[in-house]
Amino acid sequence: MATTTTAAKKQASSGPVLDWSAGHGPVTGALSATTGAFAVATTGAATHMPPGWALAVGAAGALGHTVIGLRVRNAGRTLATHAASWLVGAGWTTWAMTHGPLTWAALGSLATVGVGIGAAARSAALFEEAREEEATAAEQRAIARELSAERRAIAAEWIDRIQRVCSISVRVVGVEQWATGAGYSIDAELPPGGATWNKIAAESARLSADARLPHGCTATASPGIHQGRVIIDVTTVNVLEQERTYPADYGPLSVHTGIPWGYRTNAEQILAYLREQCALIVGPTGSGKTNMVHSILAGFARADDILTWVIDLNAGSAGLPWVLPALNGEINAPDGKAVRPGIDWLAGTYDEAMTMLDTAVKVAKQRKMGYQDVLARANTDLLPISAKIPQIMLVIDEGAEILASPDRQVRKLGEKILEVIRIARAMGIRTVLTALGATGSVLSNLMIRREAKVRVALTGGETEGMDLSKMFPGSRGLRVEQAPHKGAGFMGTPESPAALFKAWRILPNQIREIIAATSDRHPVLDDISAKAAGPAYARRWDTERTAWMREQAATATTSTGTGTVGTGLRLSALSAKEAPGSPEDEMLRRFREQIDAEFGTAPEPPAPERSVKPPAAGGLDLSALRGEQDSPAQQAALALLLAAGPQGTGASAIARGLSAEHGTSRQTVVGWLRDWVKDGTAVRIGEGTKARYVHRQHAPEQPPED
Ligand SMILES: Nc1ncnc2c1ncn2[C@@H]1O[C@H](COP(=O)(O)OP(=O)(O)OP(=O)(O)O)[C@@H](O)[C@H]1O
């Protein structure tokens, strides 16, 4: 109450509040003007107000609106309308006060004034709207003019350049600047007289030099919409030089929509379509192959219709970062649920790899029989892959080396890999093989040539043994020197011709993020397949079958002495010696139970199919070495280690040395080396695939004994 009185007093003392900027439409404006004028006239007449006052208020109103109009940049015409409305209103009020407002003449003329003001205001508003639209259009025209001026300049520059370098007079039809900002494409018409696009393509290097493009940028010509047109893609920023991390969007993917494997020189993603294709990735040591495998596994983990099975006989380094954080319970899901590993199965030993490949063959055969009705209904011979019937992607690190191995045992694995490739395309099992090199023998295999058309060659500056023409038959102008950066190389798929590309850098923290983000997205093996896969699959996380993972972690702990491995994962919990029934055993058992209970990855088998051996004390399954202790092969291996001197050697080199005489597998040698490190015979230097073993006689200093 008090407030209202104060406000009323304030208003009374400061006079009527006039809001000059208050907005009115044509109707409300006219109404407000006429009712206001009528009110002033009747009150003025009743109170004998001098009529000149109304005129003064009108003049002030006209002035006030004009000032505000100018401030908001109204058109002159709008200003005039507003001012005129005030003045006409004021004129009528003055006249009505003199002659009496309550006469038919006064009321009639007021209505006419109202309609007049309304019509004027309406036309002013329309005019104002049109004026605004015109201003926006003019602004857009200016931007477009600026853009097309830039495009016209590019077109003129390249018409001259192509004339100068290739002696061809083209007519540029369009210039498209890439949204990524890494360059532009020119669409040009070739002159009549038989000029072809490849004439320009052949001069790519000279055109790039003439355009003064930065190193690593290219001008590449390709066919246009018909044979008389050419598209020239010009990169102006060398994105292959930059380190780009795996995109932070971990949204769902599908085998049908393609899985991004990296990016092209125009910074656009390149997708691998693997429903029917297998893939081959070649990269020498240090080229960024392991990193690329991780970014591939990231894509597979994001898909809701892919189960990833990994074989990595090289101490499981490709797969472990996708399993251990979940296995160790290091990642907490927000809802407290168990987190599933980022891959569905990891084989790090020969036996486990064989089991996995046998299972894949069984699944493929069972799917062929069990899904006859589904195939008939969908009228296809390609099993319709979905989250309910997932695709199995077998990723085999250094799989090409397995195929080309001289070792008889390893070759058996190779034969199984080829069998999977041969029989399982239609049934949704495909492979990704990596290779250190040795592609000649692998690519001469008809099965690989035919089925693995998604190909990657990571060069990382390595020129030795890189035969790009074998990897990408039919593509010209690919030179290893074009991709000198780690993680960069060439990629070609049936959909996208071989060209430069780079894999994203992916670090352990992103792997952990992806494991967490995708945990409840992974599909479950369909019942028909799970039945075929049996206990071999259902028990894949059993203690004795994952013992090697713990051993791997323990070895890494011993060698670094810090409780962490190169991947940055905390493995100290696994480094302790365990006996059956130890906390680690218990943890693994609980992990498996949780996985099965939460996700029902497979039906619980009645009894294990394989003979399950209890893990030896210390958590190591040494069965592979039983009967081989101090065998001639082992003695020969020790001799090779000694002969390697302070430089040391690795498991592969020793296995190669033994292959002719003993045919020992690399995996067996890995086991021996591991034992020798434990009992102090050898010292391990370096990490992961760079690890070397030096005989203690040559070791620079003995590791401290605890
Ligand atoms: N896509 C990439 N972008 C930037 N740097 C990369 C990329 N990939 C790899 N690197 C760099 O190269 C190094 C080697 O990568 P990676 O371990 O993947 O190679 P590799 O071929 O598997 O070698 P090795 O067999 O010796 O382990 C990495 O530590 C990283 O510094």
UniProtKB/TrEMBL annotation:
Biased composition (Low complexity): 1-12
Alphabetized GO MF terms: ATP binding; DNA binding
Binding site for ATP: G283, P284, T285, G286, S287, G288, K289, T290
Entries under InterPro entries matching the protein: FtsK_dom (IPR002543), P-loop_NTPase (IPR027417)
Keywords: ATP-binding, Nucleotide-binding
Region (Disordered): 1-20, 599-622
Domain of life of the source: Bacteria
Domain FtsK stretches: 267-467
Gene3D superfamilies per the UniProt record, alphabetical: P-loop containing nucleotide triphosphate hydrolases (3.40.50.300)
Name this protein carries in UniProt: FtsK domain-containing protein
Organism listed in the record: Streptomyces lasalocidi
